[in-house]
Design a protein that fits this description.
With 431 residues, this protein is an alpha/beta fold. 51% of the residues lie in helices and 16% in strands. The protein contains 18 helices and 7 strands. Strands 5-4-3-6-7 form a 5-stranded mixed beta sheet. Helix 1 crosses helix 2 and helix 8 runs parallel beside helix 9. The radius of gyration is 31 Å and the shape is elongated. It starts with a helix and ends in an 11-residue tail after the last helix.
Length: 431
């Protein structure tokens, strides 16, 4: 190996480029692998050999530091009698090289605590992150185990995968109880449906809330499971949870006509404006209309949600009722029942209207949730469903580019908010 290293340096010097020690060592290892007929990757490739060499070298250095002397170089008359005592074989799993068999040094007193590969550690750190990432994408524990066997040639049992994902439960609980900001410009609330096998497979709604801070940041505030028949009592518990975590004021709460929610909001945050999602309202309208009448009804409802004032919207609704009330009375009742939560956004300028008239702000999050849910089909327990959704939440936009785009879109809205809600704006700022 030394002669190859020297020759590698000479050859590079001859070409006019001096290799660093690290580059020279890598070149020498590649040359040795080629001479021995080793592939660079694969079960018996150079990468596996390199991983073994690095780990064993690091463990030997740790033992030297622990004992205070090199092998067979203990100083005479020293106080400690502890010395090296051979080694033991251990197999660890690397995400890049699969199963790697290494020799872990031992000391006579058994006091050596290795750090690079700790006692009872069988997986190198990156493997846990891969498992959590695959779980967040909706793979089952069996599919993750098969993935490791196929790609890395490593044996990772279902039980091991389950233990890895269970580590995230404590982190999830801490996240669910973390402190929040005192004031949010808007909170968007929506649900996704998961299938949970509890005796028999049943649909369970999981509600997610996104808060927009006064500086334009997006924050997933929490996840709550329901049964499908939620009322004011359920929503009171959700809102009280947010309030207990520090949320004292919300300018707008946008939702899809959730039963009992407006009453709960009035009790927890009396000055919060509850806005129903106009997009959902329009979508529900067309579910009640025959397809051949869609174009005509669309022209009839457009003046309602684009009206300049609430009075103009009410007049447009009366026109719709006069023309279509006989044939589609359910459509008129739908709009009138939602009227109190529909009209608030019409009192504000166009910048605010555009951002609070629907739950579109949370739809991208729901799309990621649904992708993971579809991959799984159903979950064995409610906790496994929540783990999956939490891991999806944790993996959102790691680069931050999406957050930057979001903030830029919200800047005009926040300027309008700062004027409209100047008396409630934090830090006693006035505009």
């Amino acid at each position: 190996m030394t002669s190859e290293l020297v020759s590698a340096r000479k050859s590079e010097t001859g070409t006019g480029r001096q290799l660093s020690p690290e580059q020279a060592a890598a070149a020498a290892m590649v040359a040795e692998a080629k001479a021995r007929g080793l592939a660079l990757t694969g079960p018996d490739g150079l990468l596996k050999l390199f991983t073994k060499t690095v780990l064993e070298t690091a463990l030997a250095e740790e033992m030297t530091e622990h004992l205070g002397h090199e092998k067979n170089r203990a100083e005479p008359g020293r106080e400690s009698t502890n010395v090296r005592n051979g080694s033991r074989t251990k197999t660890v799993i690397s995400d890049a090289a699969g199963e790697v068999e290494i020799e872990v040094p031992r000391d006579r007193e058994g006091s050596f605590e290795p750090q690079i590969v700790k006692k009872r550690q069988r997986r190198l750190t990156d493997v846990d992150e891969i498992v959590l990432s695959l779980y967040a994408k909706g793979l089952t524990t069996g599919e993750i185990s098969a993935h490791f066997a196929e790609i890395y040639g490593a044996s990772v049992s279902r039980e091991t995968v389950s233990r890895i994902t269970d580590k995230v439960v404590a982190e999830m609980n801490d996240w669910a109880g973390r402190p929040l900001d005192a004031v949010y410009a808007a909170v968007f609330l929506d649900a996704v449906v998961v299938k949970v096998r509890d005796g028999q497979v049943a649909n369970r709604p999981v509600y997610a809330a996104i808060g927009v801070t006064v500086d334009g940041r997006k924050d997933v505030l929490g996840l709550w499971t329901g049964t499908g028949g939620e009322g004011a009592k359920f929503w009171m518990s959700v809102l009280v949870d947010l309030k207990n975590r520090g949320v004292h004021d919300v300018f707008f709460l946008v939702c899809d006509g959730l039963k009992g929610l407006p009453d709960a909001v009035a009790n927890v945050w009396p000055r919060t404006v509850v806005q129903t999602c106009v997009v959902h309202l329009i979508r529900n309208t067309f579910r009640l209309v025959a397809r051949q009448d869609w174009d005509a009804v669309k022209r009839g409802i457009a003046p309602i949600y684009t009206a300049p004032t609430p009075d103009a919207a009410a007049a447009a609704l009366e026109d719709l009722a006069e023309k279509w009330g006989g044939k589609y009375g359910a459509v008129i009742r739908l709009w009138r029942n939602a009227w109190d939560e529909f009209v608030p956004f019409l009192d504000y300028d166009v910048e605010i209207r555009r951002m609070i008239c629907s739950t579109n702000a949370i739809e991208s999050l729901n799309a990621r949730y649904r992708r993971a849910i579809r991959a799984r089909g159903h979950f064995p327990t409610e906790q496994s469903a929540m783990k999956c959704l939490y891991l999806v939440t944790r993996s959102l936009d790691p680069t931050g580019t999406g957050r930057a785009r979001w903030t830029m879109r919200w800047k005009p809205v926040l300027n309008a908010f700062a004027i409209t809600f100047g008396d409630r704006w934090p830090n006693a700022e006035t505009y």
